[in-house]
Amino acid sequence: MKRSLILFAHGARAASWAAPFERLRDGLRAQLPGTPVTLAFLELMEPRLPEAVAAQVADGAADITVVPVFLGQGGHLLRDLPLLAEQIRAAHPGVRLHVAGPIGEDPAVQAAMADYCVRSLS
Hints:
It holds the Pfam family CbiX. This is CbiX/SirB N-terminal domain-containing protein. It comes from Massilia phyllostachyos. Keywords: Lyase, Metal-binding. The chain is an alpha/beta fold. The chain has 4 helices and 4 strands. Strands 2-1-3-4 form a 4-stranded parallel β-sheet, with helices on both faces. The termini are far apart.
C-alpha cells in the first residue's frame, strides 16, 4: 500500500510566508525517499487539502497522513479540518486518511522550541 504525507498549513497572502514550510517539506522528501511529501493549505494558497489528496491518490497513494503544521488546535483544526477530512474520505472511500495532531502540541516539538528559546538568551 503506497503511503504519502501531506503537511497542512494555514496559508497567507504573502508567498514568502510559505518558505519555512517548503523547507520542511523538502527536508522530509530527503528523509523519506520514495514517500510523496506535499504541502497543502487551508486558504489563500494552493494547493488546498482536497486537491493535494486527489493528486496523491491519482499518483497511487492509498494511505495518506495529514500533519497539521499549526502550533495549537484552534478553530481551524477543531472545525475546518474535520469537515475537510470527512469530505475527502467521502470522495476517496478506498483511501486511508489519518490526521495527526497539530505539530506544535507534540512534546518533542515543544522541547525543541524550548531549546531554541533558551539558546536565544545567549
